[in-house]
Automatic annotation (TrEMBL):
Its main location: membrane. Residues 301-371 are annotated as: Disordered. InterPro entries: Rhomboid-like_sf, TMEM115/Pdh1/Rbl19. It is found in: Membrane. Residues 341-371 have a biased composition (Low complexity). Residues 309-320 have a biased composition (Acidic residues). Keywords: Membrane, Transmembrane, Transmembrane helix. The lineage of its organism: Eukaryota, Metazoa, Chordata, Craniata, Vertebrata. This is Transmembrane protein 115.
Length: 371
């Protein structure tokens, strides 16, 4: 175990050095607040407490700081690892500023919605513990948003091969895992589960409708629809419900309506952009097709054995020898089969024309098919 620690430390430092100032700053703040938690209860002062978040206390700064607070070393590792994964996978696509905006949007929204949920629970039950005994902090909210963003950008990537698990199923699997931990009693509060759920939801809403990029705003592709986060058996029902909610939000001006876009200034022809045919979705499908084609061509090249040039030359020499050999043997057989006369030189001279003519006939008969 000790021999792997220097290697892991080297890889960690190399990965941290290649990230931007935003990732380094967030990671450093997480570590510093963890060290500060040994002397001060940072979860109380910097975490979201539902009773103090709303008036008359109004501790609004906790909406920004709660995602940076950790009380355990494994929480620090998960927090820093999540931020560094964003720096390696999302920041090259978005940029450092957009990553910072996404971090702030997800954390603030997750903290606000989780605190509001506990406030509504107090209204229904009148238990003060839901207001003042609950502290919402940690990486759970931002982790939910990051997994949703990775589903959007590289959802078809394989996380596990046995059993085969793709990245697009990771948000639902982590939610199920946290639910099982809460039901088994390993989680002493529902706060991480609530923060993760609201973080995933706020991340999806931001990426779906509000994120600005070179093609406009949002991502209306089919593979990023809300129903795609659920199993295929319930996707039609979830899609219908999501459509009704979206229509209601459009009427109150919260979400924008999906409209057709016509690019009549295209040089070749009219370009129509419809829901389900987003350019990002088309590019994703093209990359998958190219990857499948390359793998198939590689298998074909590995299975086929091409002969070398030396083997071809040897085969040509063998063919030349087999083609010329019968001509020489037929000539010898013809000469040897000609009867010798006992007339001495005269007989030999008389037999020569017949043998020559016979040999010439044989040569001409053998040579005519070659032409």
């Amino acid at each position: 175990m000790n021999r792997y620690l220097p290697v892991a430390r080297q890889h960690f430092l190399a990965a941290l050095a290649s990230t931007s100032v935003v990732v380094k700053t967030i990671s450093a703040v997480v570590v510093l607040l963890y060290l500060l938690s040994w002397a001060v209860d940072t979860s109380y002062a910097l975490g979201v407490t539902p009773g103090y978040l709303f008036p008359p206390n109004f501790w609004v700064w906790t909406l920004v700081t709660h995602g940076l607070v950790e009380q355990h070393v494994w929480g620090v590792a998960a927090n820093v690892g999540t931020v560094m994964a964003c720096g390696r996978l999302l920041e090259p696509l978005w940029g450092a500023l957009e990553l910072l905006i996404f971090f702030a949007v997800v954390n603030v929204t997750a903290g606000l919605l989780a605190g509001l949920s506990y406030l509504l629970t107090y209204v229904a039950t009148f238990h003060l513990d839901f207001l003042f005994a609950v502290h919402i902090y940690g990486v759970a909210g931002f982790l939910g948003g990051v997994l949703v963003a990775l589903k959007q950008t590289m959802g078809d990537s394989t996380v596990l091969r046995v059993p085969q698990v793709r990245l697009k199923a990771a948000p639902a699997l982590v939610l199920l895992f946290l639910t099982l931990l809460r039901l088994s009693g390993l989680l002493d509060s529902c706060a991480p589960l609530a923060a993760y759920s609201y973080g995933a939801l706020s991340g999806w809403v931001y990426l779906r409708f509000y994120q600005r990029h070179s093609r406009g705003r949002g991502d209306m592709s089919d593979h990023f629809a809300f129903a795609s986060f659920f199993p295929e058996a319930v996707q039609p029902a979830v899609g219908l419900l999501a459509g009704l909610v979206h229509a209601a939000l459009v009427k109150i001006k919260v979400c924008r309506k999906m409209v057709k876009r016509y690019d009549v200034g295209a040089p070749s022809s009219i370009t129509i952009s419809l829901p389900g045919t987003d350019p990002q979705d088309a590019e994703r499908r093209r990359q998958l097709a190219l990857k499948a084609l390359n793998e198939r061509l590689k298998r074909v090249e590995d299975q086929s054995a091409w002969p070398s040039m030396d083997d071809e030359e040897d085969d040509d020499d063998d063919e030349v020898r087999t083609d010329t050999q019968p001509l020489l043997s037929d000539g010898r057989d013809t000469l040897s089969s000609t009867p010798r006369t006992s007339g001495g030189p005269t007989g030999a001279s008389l037999s020569s024309p017949s043998s020559a003519s016979h040999s010439g006939g044989t040569a001409s008969s053998d040579a005519s098919p070659a032409v």
